[in-house]
Each structure stands twice: as structure tokens, then as C-alpha cells.
Amino acid sequence: MEDIVDPNVLSWYRQFVHEKAESDDHTRANFLNRISDVDVDNFSIEFGNIIPEIYINFLKSAGSGRIRQDIHGNTNELYDNYFMNTSEIAEIIKRSSPQWEIYPDFIASDEIPFFFVDENSVLVFKKGKGSKVYYPHLEDVYAENLGEFLKKLMDNINFYSEL
Fold it and tell me: Which one of 11, 46, 109, 127 has the fewest beta carbons within 10 angstroms of its own beta carbon?
């Protein structure tokens, strides 16, 4: 599959974008904040261009944050369903996040976390494998690329837990 995001899918996510100054009152099921070019540049200076470009573009266009309700109104209160920003990704890669204390093999060295499932679980990209979506330490593919992942999540908020 081609590594793109369907414009209609992206539009659906973009409706949940809020300005950084707007406080997250935690009452909305879906809440996203765009990241800036400065955030991307700071990450790239420290780690290089290891995040797939399609995810960087998603963060700039729609943003990081939570998606707990799909297009059909189904909700997921069991999982965080949180798209990570570059600072949060950096914290995990540098092993300075609390997850490393609980789970010493949180992710492998060739994995880039991007989506919090819950407190001690993420979905990842693997270096050199584009934007295929994996669970850490496994070769099972949850989606062939980020565009497919976004569409699946939009259509069924629980899709990854049903695999």
C-alpha cells in the first residue's frame, strides 16, 4: 500500500485540533494539538530523521493527543489511544520515561514509539520499514502504513485490540 493518508481521513482527525493555548478539560473524547516545525527540528537535531515523514506531517496537520471515539460514535475508555508528539517520543527513546522503570524492555532499539495504547503499552514504527505499525518486539503488522492505521482507528476505535 502507498504511504499516504486519505484526505477524507485526515479531515476527520483535523476536526479535533485545538490551539495549544486551549486547555484540555478532559471531557472531550478526541483532542489533538499540532506540533511546530521547531519541535520537529529539535527532535531531528538530537535523533536524526528517524520518524517516518508521514507521521511528522500528521503531527503538523492534525497533531498529537487522544482519539477515544470513532466516526460511528463508539468509544474506548479502556485505552489511552494517544498519538505522541516528538518530546514524548524522545523521552521514551532516551529511556527517561517512567515506563522503562516498570518494563525494562519497553521497546527494542530499532523501534520508534508513536501511539500510546495504555500506560505500559505502545505501538511502534520500525527503523527502515516505513510507517508500518507494529506492537513492540513482534513482527505482526497492525497496519501496512500510517494511512491505513488512521483509517482503521477512525472506523473502529477498538480495531487493534481485536487482532
Answer: 109
Residues contacting 111, CB < 8 A, separation 6+? 124, 125, 126, 127, 134, 136, 137
Give the cell for residue 142. Answer: 497492525
The residue written with cell numbers 485526515 in the block is 10
β-bridge partners, 64: 33
Residues 6 or more apart in contact with residue 145 via CB below 8 angstroms:
1, 2, 3, 4, 54, 130, 131, 132, 133
Please state, as a whole number, how many other Cβ atoms lie within 10 Å of the Cβ of residue 27: 6
Q: Copy the grid coordinates of residue 157.
A: 476505535
- 10-23 per-position pLDDT tens digit: 999 999 998 765 66
Residue with cell 527517561: 96
Give tens-digit pLDDT for 101-128: 666 677 898 999 999 998 778 999 999 9
Residues 137, 126: Cα–Cα separation, whole Å: 10
Distance CA 150, CA 154 (A): 6
